[in-house]
């Protein structure tokens, strides 16, 4: 267990073969629903880990994701994150057994106070996935099998989405009497080009299979099975991890900023960002390596 990770409560048992890491073991303390490992240098894998319940998101999960990603955001040993699901499917969404009380029996002395309490709760659950977007390290998500309800909220907050041929996606909320409230309705229209398709998916809760997920732009790559996807995800993560963390994190932050602002505002933000970040040693090191036809993998960047 590395010292930094130990100090921050993360259990990262070091390098492991990709094949070994995906479904082995169980949740890593202090988490009960997540398994956090370091499958390669500078790469952190966060696996949703309640396979017997199809990784349904119980009360513990909604808090643990926030704790986990707050630590990852500050972890200088991590440059990229890969999110996966243990067992048969990626996730079955919100835990319908564990969470029903919270949502269906809100408490408060009167309607106003009950409403405020519910509002606080929804905001808290929104944060569970917003942390993926706020994390400056890019997050790659690898989906196999079902990705239902809150699973779609989760993946739309990630930076790169991959899936297996057997994957399917379902904005299930209308089926359980809810308007999706933790990110799908806000982020999916920015991920998929067709507003009509987003509306159709969200209003009917029909399943979308991997081929359509690829053609609509929800995922960038489809793999034949989970093993191949994990190899692809790790290869991708290692490519990202080999680049300057100053460049990579600045790229993620500015891409998200510009998604939510006008071109003029995005350019302003970029100029202000780079007035400090261009002074990094990483530019000189990277440019020199490029001139010498070396791979970025050969450049020793400082930790960030
Ligand atoms: C403030 C609100 C914030 C967020 C709101 C989000 C809304 C949503 O997420 S809506 C989506 C809710 N999810 C579902 O409706 C999916 C229900 N599950 C399934 O459809 C299936 O389980 C499956 C994902 C298609 C997988 O099928 P299969 O492989 O056949 O497994 P099962 O035999 O059905 O289940 C095994 C085991 O897991 C339990 N389980 C599955 N899903 C959930 C769930 N969402 N919540 C709680 N428990 C779940 C299931 O009961 C079984 O448990 P046993 O103890 O073995 O019986």
From TrEMBL:
Cellular localization per UniProt: Peroxisome
Alphabetical UniProt keywords: Acetylation, Fatty acid metabolism, Isomerase, Lipid metabolism, Peroxisome
One Pfam family in the UniProt entry: ECH_1
Biological pathway: Lipid metabolism; fatty acid beta-oxidation
Gene Ontology biological-process entries: fatty acid beta-oxidation
Keyword Lipid metabolism: yes
Lineage top rank: taxon: Eukaryota
Record GO cellular component, one term: mitochondrion
Reactions listed under catalytic activity: (3E,5Z,8Z,11Z,14Z)-eicosapentaenoyl-CoA = (2E,4E,8Z,11Z,14Z)-eicosapentaenoyl-CoA; (3E,5Z)-octadienoyl-CoA = (2E,4E)-octadienoyl-CoA
One Gene Ontology MF term: delta(3,5)-delta(2,4)-dienoyl-CoA isomerase activity
Family classification: Belongs to the enoyl-CoA hydratase/isomerase family.
NCBIfam families: PRK06142.1 (NF004794)
Protein's job: Isomerization of 3-trans,5-cis-dienoyl-CoA to 2-trans,4-trans-dienoyl-CoA.
Name the record gives this protein: Delta(3,5)-Delta(2,4)-dienoyl-CoA isomerase, mitochondrial
Organism for this UniProt entry: Paramormyrops kingsleyae
């Amino acid at each position: 267990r590395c010292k930094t990770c130990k100090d921050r409560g993360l259990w990262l048992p070091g390098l492991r073969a990709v094949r070994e890491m995906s479904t082995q073991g169980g949740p890593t303390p202090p988490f009960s629903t997540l398994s956090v490992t370091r499958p390669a240098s500078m790469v952190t894998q966060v696996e949703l880990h309640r396979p017997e319940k199809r990784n349904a998101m119980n009360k513990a999960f909604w808090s643990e994701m926030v704790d986990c990603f707050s630590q990852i955001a500050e972890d200088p040993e991590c440059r990229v994150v890969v999110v996966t699901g243990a067992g048969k499917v990626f996730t079955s969404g919100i835990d319908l057994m564990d969470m029903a009380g919270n949502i269906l029996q809100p408490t408060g002395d009167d309607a106003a106070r009950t409403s405020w309490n519910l509002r606080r709760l929804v905001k808290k659950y929104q944060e569970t996935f917003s942390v993926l977007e706020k994390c400056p390290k890019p997050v790659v998500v690898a989906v196999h099998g079902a990705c239902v309800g809150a699973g779609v909220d989760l993946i739309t907050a990630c930076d790169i989405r991959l899936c297996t041929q057997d994957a399917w996606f379902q904005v299930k909320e209308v089926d359980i009497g809810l308007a999706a409230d933790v990110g799908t309705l806000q982020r999916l229209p920015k991920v998929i080009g067709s507003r009509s398709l987003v509306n159709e998916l969200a209003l009917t809760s029909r399943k979308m299979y991997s081929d359509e997920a690829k053609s609509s732009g929800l995922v960038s790559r489809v793999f034949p099975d989970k093993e191949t996807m994990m190899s692809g995800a790790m290869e991708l993560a290692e490519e990202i991890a080999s680049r300057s963390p100053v460049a990579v994190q600045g790229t993620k932050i500015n891409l998200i900023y510009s998604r939510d602002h006008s071109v003029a505002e995005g350019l302003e933000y970029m100029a202000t960002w780079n007035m400090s970040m261009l002074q990094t040693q990483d530019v000189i090191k990277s440019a020199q390596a490029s001139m010498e036809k070396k791979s970025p993998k050969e450049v020793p960047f400082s930790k960030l």
